[in-house]
Design goal:
Keywords: ATP-binding, Cell membrane, Membrane, Nucleotide-binding, Translocase, Transport
CATH architecture of one domain: 3-Layer(aba) Sandwich
Strand order of the largest sheet: 6-7-8-3-9-10
Number of strands: 10
Bound molecules: adenosine-5'-triphosphate
Protein name: Phosphonate ABC transporter ATP-binding protein
Largest sheet: 6 strands, mixed
Helix content: 25-40%
Strand content: 15-25%
CATH class of one domain: Alpha Beta
Pfam families: ABC_tran
Number of helices: 9
Order of helices and strands: EEEHEEHEHHHHEHEHEEH
CATH topology of one domain: Rossmann fold
GO molecular function: ABC-type phosphonate transporter activity; ATP binding; ATP hydrolysis activity
Family: Belongs to the ABC transporter superfamily.
Length: 280
């Protein structure tokens, strides 16, 4: 599916992402963790070409996405939907229009300029909002919604893109624990029901452990851990976060109540397996 080969991103003489190589070969929910400045956002932003890579290759199903230009690049950006920490909605527009903006790259420039959407777009947007449990807010302005509701609108907008993969850059960093759980549950549901790759930057270890099939740990731009959440011991976490023996996991906790993934996480063959034996 997606493959990184020796990807580097430098800002001046600083390596934000340093020789990163990994591949995701099946629809997985991948959590990327690491302390602030480790390179998580830069990694994600290179996938959808918001940040240009300095060198290396990113392949999606064999296509070198770093060399895409013009309409091919726009099509790719539609195919990998991005969810941001700050939601990136248009505050004064109503919710349903915000969701339909996910279709923009799929329509003509003229239609895009005037926000002209078809009846089918409206139906699909309402269905996406319904799936996220907020269809009743469709006619409100985005700015009238709580943070958690706005993030669900942003996820509905991502769904409108019918993406190949969903990239979420610290989607719960601005949310309280209850809304964080709703948003993480929604991302997990998209992964499971639609069989999508979801790559999610997370600040907190417990969220990565609870929701992800695979965790990538970054430190100083490099991948220092790549494995199943069960392998993410305190010692490994210490290495990722660069903390000494006084490292306290609670400092990276959001206290989200754990979902019961024991009956949900899939093995590579698609069969359900308990968390303890789930493979990367
Ligand atoms: N546009 C930029 N210009 C210069 N330096 C940048 C830019 N974007 C990121 N960096 C630097 O690259 C490094 C990695 O940043 P990045 O935002 O990817 O880290 P992060 O792990 O996502 O951090 P956080 O969790 O705080 O968002 C940092 O040292 C950062 O200062």
């Amino acid at each position: 599916m997606i493959q990184f080969d020796n990807v580097v991103k430098t800002f001046g003489n600083r390596h934000a992402v340093d020789q990163v190589t990994f591949r995701v070969d099946e629809p997985q929910m991948v959590g990327v963790i690491g302390r602030s400045g480790a390179g998580k956002s830069t990694l994600l932003r290179m996938i959808n070409r918001l940040t240009p890579a300095t060198s290396g290759q990113i392949l999606f199903e064999g296509t070198d996405i770093l060399s895409l230009n013009g309409s091919a690049k726009r099509r790719w950006q539609r195919d990998c939907a991005m969810v941001f920490q700050q939601f990136n909605l248009v505050p004064r527009l109503d919710v349903v229009t915000n969701v339909m903006l996910g279709r923009l790259n799929a329509q003509s420039t003229l239609k895009s300029m005037f926000n002209i959407f078809s009846a089918e777009d409206v139906r699909n947007a309402l269905a996406a909002l319904d799936r996220l449990g907020i269809a009743q807010e469709a006619t409100k302005r985005a700015e009238e919604l709580s943070g958690g509701q706005q993030q669900r609108v942003a996820i509905a907008r991502a769904l409108m893109q019918d993406p190949h993969l969903v990239l979420a850059d610290e989607p719960i960093a601005s949310l309280d624990p209850m809304n964080a759980k709703i948003v993480m549950d929604a991302l997990r549901e998209i992964h499971e029901r639609d069989n999508k790759v979801v790559i999610c930057n997370l600040h907190t270890l417990d969220t990565a452990r609870n929701y992800c099939d695979r965790v990538i740990g970054m430190r100083d731009g490099k991948i220092v851990f790549d494995g199943a959440p069960e392998l993410l011991t305190t010692d490994v976490a210490r290495e990722i976060y660069g903390a000494d023996e006084n490292f306290n996991e609670a400092a990276t906790s959001t206290a989200i109540e754990s979902p019961d993934l024991s009956v949900r996480r899939k093995d590579p063959a698609g069969a359900m397996t308990p968390v303890a034996v789930a493979a990367v």
